[in-house]
């Protein structure tokens, strides 16, 4: 495809990880394996937290929505990337790119929001146990989840509207395996991308507030847990908090690094690996992380595997 055609075509050209057919096949196979792992893991969590009567507390209610978010998040980018790689064609239509940006930014923000809600839930459960059922009553939980989805949609609308209001006058080549907003901004030849910068700055402030609230929640949690006299009590408290803390740290650190690092005109393998760390790995690893240290989840999983009958 000539440079003229790339500039004037309606859609965009996603540059994969390599032009080498062997590496392309390896990339598609790796993505397919990770996608299937994420699909199975998150569907299992959604199933057991819906059907098992022992997993009906607010913590597992939020975990179910996190799994649904993770499943949706990875489905926005990975299947398209696998298809493009197998067809040896990086073309993505303008409409597909708009939808990808909308759902990617919506779900990414919703993930930050649900992790913030989950940290407050753990804070209320461990630091305010006598008032926990009053604080996290079913109506409050439903309102919190509704706020997560609505705020995610607002974020997606803001990002998508601002991004696709710019004029793309350069070769429509995106050096990424999905329609990445920073890469799209580089296709602009004027200052009409300032709207996106404004949206990003606003959402960054909100994200920083969420981060601070998560940190404060865990400061209170840790100071409370270390004062629990029984070893069993401390172990039980940590088993519900450590997976969440790890997921929060991993998602926010990789996302922040991607946001702060300068975009390159010709990204190297390192840039692509970092993008995998915040787009593909969290949805794949979250079900494993949440199941490893949680005995209730392990028992529910065993019941699912050994019998289809829940009590």
Automatic annotation (TrEMBL):
PANTHER family from the UniProt entry: OLFACTORY RECEPTOR
UniProt cross-references to Pfam families, sorted A to Z: 7tm_4 (PF13853)
Spans through the membrane: 25-48, 98-120, 141-162, 193-219, 240-260, 272-292
Cited function: Odorant receptor.
Organism: Erinaceus europaeus (Western European hedgehog)
Name of the protein this chain belongs to: Olfactory receptor
Gene: LOC103128098
Annotated localization: Cell membrane
InterPro entries reported for this sequence: GPCR_Rhodpsn (IPR000276), GPCR_Rhodpsn_7TM (IPR017452), Olfact_rcpt (IPR000725), Olfactory_GPCR (IPR050516)
Lineage: Eukaryota, Metazoa, Chordata, Craniata, Vertebrata
């Amino acid at each position: 495809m000539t440079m003229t055609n790339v500039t004037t075509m309606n859609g965009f050209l996603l540059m994969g990880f390599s032009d080498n057919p062997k590496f392309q096949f390896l990339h598609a196979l790796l993505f397919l394996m990770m996608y299937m792992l994420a699909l199975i893991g998150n569907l299992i969590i959604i199933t057991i937290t819906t059907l098992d009567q022992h997993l009906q507390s607010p913590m597992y209610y939020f975990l179910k929505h996190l799994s649904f978010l993770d499943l949706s998040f990875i489905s926005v980018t990975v299947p398209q990337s696998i298809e493009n790689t197998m067809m040896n064609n990086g073309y993505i239509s303008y409409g597909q790119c708009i939808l990808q940006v909308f759902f990617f930014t919506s779900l990414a923000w919703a993930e930050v929001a649900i992790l913030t809600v989950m940290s407050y839930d753990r804070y209320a459960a461990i630091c305010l146990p006598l008032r926990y059922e009053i604080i996290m009553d079913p109506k409050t939980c439903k309102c919190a989840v509704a706020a997560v989805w609505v705020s995610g949609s607002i974020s997606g609308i803001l990002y998508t509207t601002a991004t696709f209001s710019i004029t793309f006058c350069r070769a429509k080549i995106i050096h990424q395996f999905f329609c990445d907003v920073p890469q799209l901004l580089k296709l602009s030849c004027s200052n009409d991308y300032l709207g996106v910068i404004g949206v990003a700055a606003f959402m960054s402030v909100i994200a920083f507030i969420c981060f601070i609230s998560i940190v404060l929640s865990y400061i209170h949690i840790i100071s409370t847990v270390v004062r629990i006299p029984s070893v069993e009590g401390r172990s039980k408290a940590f088993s519900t908090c450590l997976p969440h803390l790890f997921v929060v740290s991993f998602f926010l650190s990789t996302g922040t690094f991607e946001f702060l690092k300068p975009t390159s005109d010709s990204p190297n393998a390192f840039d692509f690996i970092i993008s995998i760390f915040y787009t593909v790995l969290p949805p794949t690893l979250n079900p494993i992380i949440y199941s490893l240290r949680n005995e209730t989840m392990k028992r529910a999983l065993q019941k699912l595997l050994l019998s289809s009958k829940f009590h």
